[in-house]
Specification:
- Helix 3 crosses helix 4, helix 6 crosses helix 7 and helix 6 crosses helix 10.
- It contains 11 helices and 15 strands.
- It is 40% helix and 24% strand.
- Bound molecules: adenosine-5'-diphosphate and magnesium ion.
- Magnesium ion (MG) binds next to helix 1.
- The site of magnesium ion (MG) has 4 residues, from helix 1.
Length: 369
């Protein structure tokens, strides 16, 4: 798939701007704080309904705007084209329409525009907390599967309810009855989430290993595995229900749910060294890169469409070998690259855009160095 056009109105530092992207590599160049990340953040927002760095939608509204913000994208897929339009009203509530039809649930946005996002902060995928790795799984899987997204939403709601019950009624005689309000639903949603994660991680591990071999010249063997609670995959829902029961005494004591997908993690190691704790920055960066390249392939296989790749400020952080390896593996993928200077390693001509004075303009369609 491809993004044909992005229009921004009172979105972050853009009062009014629009840009037409091209197939292949689109290089967005500008000074620091000119608004490069804001554009790609807008694209991510149109893809998953969430910004990469602003937790509240209201923060996306231009400070000078009294009327909220709007972002509109035109997407071209193999057999269809779509308009995604998101208005954030002045109260900070977002209203999403796809092809002029307002959607009822944000899940309907998932999969319309698929994005693989890579920025320096994605290093947290390896070095950060387990929640950073779960975030990666959730964003990737939600784009690939709406049932996953809905299961996750339901699970999170039920988990909040369950934790509230554990907090408020942990001394009550009928706590077990109260937990019957949440636990069957929780087990059902957990089984969907865990099954999808297990399938995805298995494939991700395989493809990431291949990518990593190429990136490291076969010097490092990358292993990725799923760390979840002890479960029987034959009947996940039942098995998860049992895990909840087994954790009952502990849950009462801690007033918190101790088992479940909200505690999952990904183990990522190279040559048997756990990169999460012991990886050098360079190793961690290469591992993220391998995983992102693998993510693109898995998207392609599952959806029959190529996702958009966003490389926000990462080229300058990679050494020349990895930079070339990355650029040579993105042919056929529409890629938005932000950087302060045009890259010298690109093999093919690319479209060049300049961000300046809160606007973005096309400088050259076939820029070569
Ligand atoms: N809600 C907002 N309204 C207007 N400007 C904003 C808003 N949020 C952030 N900015 C501005 O956007 C700029 C950051 O843009 P960014 O895309 O991160 O720059 P770059 O990636 O080019 O370094 C900052 O100057 C910041 O002040
Ligand atoms: Mg930036």
């Amino acid at each position: 798939m491809e993004i044909v056009r992005v229009a921004l109105s009172n979105f972050l530092n853009y009062a009014s701007a629009h840009v037409e992207f091209e197939s292949g590599v689109n290089m967005v160049v500008g000074e620091n704080a000119s608004g490069k990340t804001n554009i790609v953040d807008g694209v991510l927002f149109a893809s998953i309904g969430r910004s990469s760095r602003h937790t509240k939608d209201k923060e996306l509204i231009n400070w000078n705007s009294k009327n909220g913000a709007q972002i509109t994208l035109k997407i071209q897929k193999k057999f269809s084209s779509h308009i995604i339009d998101i208005v954030i009203d002045s109260a900070g509530t977002k209203h999403v329409s796809i092809d002029d039809l307002p959607i009822k649930r944000i899940g309907e946005l998932m999969g319309v525009l698929n994005v693989v996002f890579f920025s320096p902060s994605e290093l947290a995928l390896i070095s950060g907390a387990p929640s950073d790795r779960r975030r990666f799984l959730n964003i990737s899987l939600s784009q690939q599967s709406r049932p996953y997204f809905y299961a996750l939403q339901n699970y999170n709601k039920l988990l909040v309810q369950r934790n509230n019950i554990l907090k408020k009624y942990n001394a009550s005689d009928n706590i077990k009855d109260l937990l019957q309000l949440t636990d069957p639903g929780l087990s059902h949603e957990a089984s969907i989430i865990i099954k999808e994660r297990a399938k995805f991680i298995k494939k991700l591990a395989l493809v990431s290993k291949e990518k990593h071999n190429i990136l490291t010249g076969n010097k490092e063997d990358l292993d990725i595995s799923y760390e979840t609670c002890d479960l029987s995959f034959d009947n996940l829902e039942k098995s998860f229900g049992e895990a909840l029961s087994n954790s009952f005494a502990r849950d009462i004591h801690t007033e918190y749910t101790n088992v479940g997908p909200h505690r999952d993690d990904l183990k990522i190691s190279a040559n048997s060294t756990d990169l999460r704790r012991f990886g050098s920055q360079g190793q961690q960066r290469s591992a993220v890169l391998s995983m992102k390249l693998a993510e693109i392939e898995l998207f392609k296989k599952r959806t029959q469409e190529t996702p958009i790749l966003i490389l926000d400020d990462v080229l300058s952080e990679l050494d020349e070998f990895r930079r070339r390896a990355l650029l040579s593996s993105i042919s056929g993928i529409q890629t938005l690259i932000t950087c302060t200077e045009p890259s010298k390693e690109a093999e093919d001509p690319y479209a060049l855009f300049k961000v300046h004075n809160c606007s973005i303009s096309k400088y050259d369609s076939f820029y070569t160095v």
